[in-house]
Amino acid sequence: DGLASFANLFGVSELAAEEVHNDPQRFPRWVEYSTMDAVLTYKLFVHLRSKLESEMWRTEVHRRSVHEKLHDPNTVKMLLGGKVVPDDTGYTMWDFYQFYLRDFAVCLADLEQEGIGVSREAVERIKAEAMADSKKGHEEFVDCMESISAPDGKILNPEIRHMNMGSSVQKRILLFGGDKPQASNFKIVRDAFKVMDKAGRQDVHSELLGFESKPKKQVLH
User: Fold this and answer.
1) GO:BP terms for this protein (predicted)?
2) Which residues contact 213 (CB under 8 A, 6 or more apart)?
3) What is the CA radius of gyration of the chain?
């Protein structure tokens, strides 16, 4: 029971922790859970630390020189015993954690608590540019799909502008049809889009799709 999640024991509301902490009847259960959580967290820490301490940290940054190795009693002992001296740095992955990751974790915690200052003007500008790029890409895709017609001349995707472009299911049905697309269909559509890329996304070599392109309207002068 001590391994049960917080949500299963006390609920998922934002005030769940505060409510159980301030409830005299449930407070003992809260203390039990908190204590068990601390004990298990410490045991996990000890386990992970032992694994890191048993793994050598191999890096050119801290590679030991031959002179340093020969003055290491452990290295001399291994050489005299006829053993191969491992090409290590003398450090473990626990040292790597101590050197770099521990302070980095503190930095991340501070960033989460304090936040990062940003320029609102820059964010709004980037947002506007991203939305414009997204709209442009959407229109190019819709125009491409609207240009494809069946052998009888009918437009294959007359309702394409109402499609949800964020739906992977709808895109799969649009490009491959049905629920289980054939592998050959993937190659056909992939080749078609390669041709479209070379043409600057203006037209599709519709023979690759097995259809005829809808002729563009001619403007009479």
Assistant:
1) DNA-templated DNA replication; double-strand break repair
2) 147, 148, 149, 203, 204, 206
3) 32
